[in-house]
Amino acid sequence: MSESHNGTAPKLTIEVKDLHKSFGGQAALRGVDLVVPEGTTCVLMGVSGSGKTVLMKHIMGLMRPDRGVVLVDGEEVARMNEPALNQMRRKLGILFQANALFDSLNVFDNVAFPLRERTQTPEDEITRMVKQTLEKVGLSHAATRFPGELSGGMQKRVGFARATILQPKILLYDDPTAGLDPLTTAAVNEIITKGKQQLGATSLVITPDVASAFGTADNLALMHEGQVVEYGPPDHFKQSQHPEVKAFLRNWLRRRSEQRPPPA
Ligand SMILES: Nc1ncnc2c1ncn2[C@@H]1O[C@H](COP(=O)(O)OP(=O)(O)OP(=O)(O)O)[C@@H](O)[C@H]1O
């Protein structure tokens, strides 16, 4: 493990302190505070437009804050130059809504891509690593298939294999279960939990799927109008008296009962 700039042991945490960001005078983040401790999974929830993706983009170094700091692994993201940013991003496994698999590459080559692109790993070692990773996600049999020939859930698993082949210590997921059926959603949630167990990764997950959130999170954070208004483990959250949490959960329960088919 390397040492961070201040000489202390690196902390594989994500820390966000008083983060502000506006676009054309419109505040998107209004003083976000959030800590995702090492090896834990935090699920970020909140209605559309509450600032979840903007926060995630600051963590990835894709946006610069107007005020406040984001520390990844103890280092301030906004102070990193391009090489440092690239190095920081190697610690991140990023799994977004669209899997962004390469349609023209088979499963094996998709998963091998980060190793070939970012490392000098010899081909025989790449073969060993990809085979091992595909085995972990239950896709050994699909190595020669192309993304177009896979189900949505299998594509997600390939995306996960590719995002984790460099053994990232921090995993970022943006809406990983979007558009998936309940069975595949359960498989993706298992993948998220596995990411924590197999890699010991620190994970931040954005999802509108509250049931998944309660199943996978060590801590939940609710964003409302550019701030984290509640944070804590699922039990704390369920019992929260915060008006925004109560409204959010009430809404979710209402939508869920509307979506259920009427009894026969
Ligand atoms: N690049 C940008 N330029 C201008 N405004 C932006 C930009 N990115 C985000 N915003 C605004 O910032 C606010 C927060 O957006 P953000 O995408 O973080 O919401 P969100 O909580 O992720 O929503 P959703 O759940 O719909 O993805 C919104 O009002 C959005 O219009």
Automatic annotation (TrEMBL):
Residue span, ABC transporter domain: 14-250
Pfam hit, one: ABC_tran
One Gene Ontology molecular-function label: ATP hydrolysis activity
Keywords tagged on the record: ATP-binding, Nucleotide-binding, Transport
Highest taxon in the source lineage: Bacteria
Matches recorded under PANTHER family: INTERMEMBRANE PHOSPHOLIPID TRANSPORT SYSTEM ATP-BINDING PROTEIN MLAF, PROTEIN TRIGALACTOSYLDIACYLGLYCEROL 3, CHLOROPLASTIC
Protein name: ABC transporter ATP-binding protein
